[in-house]
Amino acid sequence: MGLFTALLTLPLAPVRGTVWVAEKLQEQAEQELTARSEASIQQGLMEIEVLREEGTFDEDELEQAEDALVEQLMQLRGFREEVRDGAIE
After folding, report:
1. In principle, which of 26, 45, 50, 87 could form an S-S bond with 82, CB 3.0–4.6 Å?
2. Are 41 and 73 in contact (CB under 8 A)?
3. Cα 31 to Cα 73: distance, rounded to the nearest angstrom
4. Global pTM value
5. What's the CA gap between 68 and 73, in Å, rounded?
6. CB environment 10-44: b (16+ within 10 A), e (fewer)
């Protein structure tokens, strides 16, 4: 029956190939987006450290900003794990 099914679904092969390529492109785009986002969050954390060393801002303000960035980073990494595990499609 496998040969018969393969022959009947042969006209759909280009569609299946197109779907496969689209899925791969989506995966690549998500990986690039999360990598860029993570880099910008890490840059923000480094900027907070520079401001802390300069003493320009209140320590409480810096801690709040740092906590927000760390939470964003944790959410981003959690999202990436969900995508990698196939939970989000």
Report:
1. 87
2. yes
3. 14
4. 0.57
5. 9
6. eeeeeeeeeeeeeeeeeeeeeeeeeeeeeeebeeb
The conformational region for residue 67 under phi > 0 = left, psi -120 to 50 = alpha, else beta, is alpha
Cα 45 to Cα 8, 50, 55, 77: the distances in Å are: 57, 9, 15, 16
The owner of tokens 């959690």 is 78
Task: Name the token pair of 81.
Answer: 């794990």
Q: Which two tokens stand for residue 39?
A: 């880099």
Instruction: For the chain, give the number of residues.
Output: 89
pLDDT digits (tens, 9 = 90+) for 6-27: 777 777 777 777 777 888 888 8
Amino acid at 23: E
